[in-house]
From TrEMBL:
The EC number(s) this enzyme carries: 1.14.14.1
Obligatory cofactor(s): heme
Top-tier EC class: oxidoreductase
The protein, known as: unspecific monooxygenase
Amino acid sequence: MAAKAPRKAWSTISMWSILEFVSQAVTFYLNGFENVTATLSFALHELALQPEIQERLVREIKQHHNRNGGRLNVRSIQTMKYMDMVVSETLRLWPPETVLERVCVKPFNLGKPNSTSSNDYVVQKGERVLIPVWSIHRDPIYFPNPEKFNPERFSEQNKGNLNMCYMPFGSGPRNCIGSKFALCVLKVLLYYFLLFIEVYPSKKTCIPPKLSKRYPRLRLKDSHWLMFTARSQV
C-alpha cells in the first residue's frame, strides 16, 4: 500500500497584512479589557446613586458567600439572579458598543420606511448597515422610562419581552464570542468588590451623568468619581 503524501499545512497568515494583525490586537485589547473596566465603572456609579439596589445586591452576595463557604465558581455565580439583573441593566443603559456594523450579503427588502413612502427600501448586497444600539436601548417603546436604572426590567417575569431590542454584545451568529467570559468577569469583580466595600457618591460624582466628548467610547464627563468605605461585616 502506497504511503500517503503528507498534507500541506493550511494557513491564512500570508493573507494578512501587518496592519490587519495590529488592528486585531487592538480590538482584542479594547473588547477584552477596556469594555469590562468601563462597564464595571458604570455599574458602581449606578449602585452608588441607588443604595437600595446596592444593598439588595449585597444581601444576595452575602447569602451566596455564607451558603457556599466563601467559595465562588462559574456555576454558582450563575445562580445569582439579582446580580444578573444588575449587570444586564448596566449593559442596557451603558452598552460597550453604541453602534453595530454589518455588511449586507444579499438584497433585503425592509418595506416602506414610513407611511408617506410609495416605494420599499431595499438594502443592496455589499452595503453597510449601522445598528444604533444606544438609541434602541434607550427607546421608550421598548424600555419605559429608559433613563432610569431599573434592574427589574430583567426579572424572570419581564426579560422574556425584550426580544431583539437588547443587544449589548451584538446579536445573531456574528455576536461577540467573548460575551459569556465578559459577563463572568464582570460578576466576579462586582461580587468581591461589594462583599468588602460600600460605594457611594462623592462631591465630584457626575450627577446627573453626562458623557465626555473627549473619548470615542463611553466615559463620564470629568471621569468617574466615587467614595468607598470598608464594610464592617462580611
